[in-house]
Fold this sequence. Notes:
Elements: H1 7-25, H2 43-69, H3 75-89, H4 91-100, H5 105-133, H6 138-142, H7 147-162, H8 167-182, H9 187-191
Amino acid sequence: MATMGKGRLEAFSDGVLAIIITIMVLELKVPHGGTLADLQHLAPVFAGYLVSFVYVAIYWNNHHHLLHGARAVDARIMWANMHLLFWLSLIPFTTGWIAEFYGAPWPTAAYGVNLVLAGFAYRLLELAIVAHDGKDSVIGRATRHSHKGTISLVAYSAAIGLAFLAWQVAIAVYVVVAIMWVIPDRRITKQLPDHPA
């Protein structure tokens, strides 16, 4: 299977992620008043934006390390990457819905579905890179035991069900998983040849 450089894929992905963040911030409308009380109704929108911004930042960071560790890309990797970007591009939609109808079960569950599918797509991208580079490659060694990824998918799935029973708990799960991923994951950088021992 033909391989090519990673530059265009990285640049395209960075552009898409930047647009996703831009779309999300456009949902923060200027209030019709000059007091702090006028900001109150924007609190759910800002909270949703903050959590989703963190998620997009996490994906950008991990995606950067993932492609840095890959040797090259082929058609399978490119399509896996597009699959990931598709689900990430829906984050502004699910963020807007959950912010507009804060506490409603369906938007809360939809946000979790979005996170599950993005997490699953990221895992498929990892597997596509391993299939191309080999199990003993940088990414192959780094992703051999993806405990954080598995825990995240299980947590998101639980939160989808919890959205209909206790939406506050579902939201808390999304926040806790985001915090878990903010802590740097050094699995890939440790496998790079230029990493200090």
